Amino acid sequence: MSGSGYLELNGIASRYGATQVLKDINLSIRAGEFVALLGSSGCGKTTLLRTLAGFNAPSSGSVHIGARDITHLPPDKRGMALVFQSYALWPHMTVDENIAYGLKLKGVPRADIAAKVSAMQSLLGLQGLGGRKPQALSGGQRQRVALGRALVIDPEILLLDEPLSNLDARIRLTVRHELRALQQRLGITAIHVTHDREEAMVMADRIVILDAGRIAQQGRPEEVYNRPASPFVAAFMGAENLLKLDGFVVGDRFVLSPGAVHAAGGVPLDGRSLASGAVEARFRPEAARILATLDTATPEDGMTFRGEVLAVTYPGGHWRHVVRTGAHEILADAPRACQPGERVAVHVGADALFLFNLAEPASASSLPASRA
Amino acid sequence: MAGLRLNLSVLWWLPRGLIFGLMAFFIFGPLFNMALWTVTEKWYFPHALPLEYGFSAWARVFAPRGGALQSLGNSLTVAVLTVIVSLAFAIPAGYALARLKLPLRSLILLAFLIPQAFPNLTVYVNVARLFYEIHLNGTIAGVVLVHVSHGLVYAVWIATAAFSAIDVELEQAARSLGAGAMRTFRDITLPLAAPGLMASAIFVFLESLDEFTGSYFVGAPDVNMLPLLLYTAGSGGNYQVASITALLLLVPSLIFMLIVERFLKADVLSRVGR
After folding, report:
1. CB B192 to CB A91 under 8 A?
2. Is there a contact between A7 and A157 (Cβ–Cβ < 8 Å)?
3. A·B CB contacts under 8 A
4. How far apart are CA B233 and CA B237, in angstroms?
5. What is the tally of helices (H) and strands (E) in chain A?
């Protein structure tokens, strides 16, 4: 890594007994950046966050803030504030006392504490709740108290451990934007752990996708979404449709050989390191276009295949079709519904078709093609 | 029909009333009898109620030479010291047992039961012999030591349960905001565990107040305790003095049990011994 970042993680590894939870994590985070650690449960994202917070000691590697080595500092000496998934509000203290606690620890004068606490409460829309105990608050209010408690001490780095996952779906959407706006306004460096792809996309400057304790890919939301570096990232970012194809490299294009159910096609290599041979193709349901008949001129770019509609559902906004093509079943969205049994052609554009060499060993495939 | 059903429901109250009445009699009968004896001047067979009422027995008990005040003082001193020593040990021990993943944790918890596993008499006779050799016999410290060995089961078990009922993340939240380990313990852990610790203190206090065998072998005759006074008065046929002593023992028990019932929450109780 460049080493120019504000928060630097170098070769962090962590193990619980015999199981290796984190393997060689290298991450460089700029001051004021909002980074989302994204992954499914058990991928090590929470362990990584707790390692940053100082609750887990890494088995190797180091963490630096600027020039300061904080790898072995206790949690209270790190200048970070962690917002827990459970909120972890203290039930024997009121909202005021919960928020004021961090300031009290710093020895801030009492009048200043009161001013800062009430400023934080009006910032978070908690006015009038200061005298309540956490038990008397709704989930959304508790979440905001937990956030206020962390923000009021003006931490160098804010760590968020899935703080939105216990909220109602509707509140969650607004809190995402509130949190993001607040982080930008205060200029705090934030690291947000989540398993929600959309949440990470909406909130973060950079997404770091973790898979089995390694960084599978990192980059801006549109980068990891549109240029997944591995089949895992492609699948995790919603490209669940999977086809096995053959092809070869011609110049700067990868040409797909025609098969039993699909016509010839091709995609520009565009910097991708694809080798001739068997590939797996992944794409999202919304990237597929259903063509009414097979006679339509098949576009040069991308790929077209024939199939039969098995089922149609309406998840909202578009119709989702289950299409059988050869041995595979795929999902394809269309603005109009096709009847089950109907024979259709499905086209996937070149920019939405993700190709990965099949022969590639698993370890190499998880290396990011391009690093941010 | 309605009248018949009414009759049946009235009939159903009969056995219920009988059972409740009997229960009340067995619980409150002896208590009432005791209360009567404390204000009796003269009461002998075959009379169902005392012949003369008065407070002369109270005067005798609380006379400087009655020994009751001294016994009460001894009992309270020993009980308070036992609570202090037990908690001073149980708070760190309970916290360690609750928080650290100690190997053999349940074995350690079980070890505190050992003093209860053997017949008290044999244990205390030997303790008395041992204490005699190291000049602890007949001292307050000796009796406190015996009571602590007895009370630690309650203290450690309940303290462990009280601490493990506290979510670790509540402590971690304080650490993350800049509180050191001791500060976190003082500000977060201790206040949250306080009800459970209070309950364990009360249990230890009551156990110490009631304890007889150890007090007898280790304390008597130099350190006289309230149960000992009760025993002497009872075996001497002095029911007035015995009843007044019993009342002195009963009142704190009742008050504290009511407090414990308020303090001990289900989430703490469910963790006792685990």
Report:
1. yes
2. yes
3. 63
4. 6
5. 9, 20
Work out whether strand A34-38 and strand A303-313 pair parallel, antiparallel, or are unpaired: unpaired
Burial B175-193 (b: 16+ CB within 10 A, else e): bbbbbeeeebbebbbeebb
CA distance B194 to A14: 36
Q: Is A295 on the interface with B (CB under 8 A)?
A: no
- Which residues on B lie below 8 Å from A46 (Cβ)? none
**A91: which residues sit within 8 A by CB, 6+ positions away?**
A133, A134, A135, B170, B192
Q: What is the ipTM score, two decimals? A: 0.81
Ordered per-residue pLDDT tens for chain B, 274 residues: 555 666 777 778 888 889 988 988 888 888 888 888 888 877 877 777 877 787 777 777 777 776 777 888 888 889 999 999 999 999 999 998 888 776 777 788 888 777 777 787 888 888 888 888 888 787 888 889 888 988 888 888 889 888 988 999 999 999 999 889 999 999 999 999 988 888 888 889 888 888 888 788 877 777 778 788 778 777 777 777 788 888 888 887 888 888 777 776 666 666 665 5
Q: Is A52 on the interface with B (CB under 8 A)?
A: no
User: What letter does residue B180 receive in the DSSP assignment?
Assistant: -
Task: Kindly state the tokens that stand for B20.
Answer: 């409740």
What angle separates helix A95-106 from helix A110-124, to the nearest 10 degrees? 130
Minimum CA–CA partner of B194 in chain A: A92
Q: How far is CA A163 from the centre of its chain?
A: 14
The one-character DSSP state at B115 is H
Q: Which domains does chain A have, with CATH numbers?
A: 7-226 (3.40.50.300), 232-365 (2.40.50.140)
CB A366 within 8 Å of CB A216: yes
H helix or E strand, kind and range, residue A343: strand A343-348
Residues of chain B in Cβ contact (below 8 Å) with chain A: 167, 169-170, 172-181, 183, 187-188, 191-192
Place of tokens 């500000």: B187
Residues B206 and A160: their CA atoms lie apart, in Å, by 48
Q: Is A281 exposed, middle or buried (0-12, 13-18, 19+ CB in 10 A)?
A: buried
Dist CA A178 CA A190 (whole Å): 14
| Upper half-sphere CA count for residue B260 (Cβ side, 13 Å) | 18
CA distance B254 to B206: 10
Neighbour-count burial of A313, counting CB atoms closer than 10 A to its CB (0-12 exposed, 13-18 middle, 19+ buried)? exposed
Report phi then psi at A370, rounded to 5. Answer: -135, 135
Which residues of A are less than 8 Å from B167 in CB distance?
86, 88
What single string gives the DSSP state of each residue in A90-157?
-TTS-HHHHHHHHHHHHT--HHHHHHHHHHHHHHHT-TT-TTS-GGGS-HHHHHHHHHHHHHTT--SE
- Sheet with strand A277-283: strands edge to edge: A265-268, A253-256, A241-250, A277-283, A354-357
Q: Do A150 and B174 touch (CB under 8 A)?
A: no
Q: Do B172 and A88 touch (CB under 8 A)?
A: yes
Give the tokens for residue B59.
């005067």
For tokens 């009760």, what's the residue? B230
Beta strands A157-161 and A80-83 are parallel
**Residues of A with Cβ-Cβ distance to B177 under 8 angstroms:** 76, 81, 101-102, 105, 149-150, 153
The Cβ-side half-sphere exposure at A276, using a 13 Å CA radius, reads 7
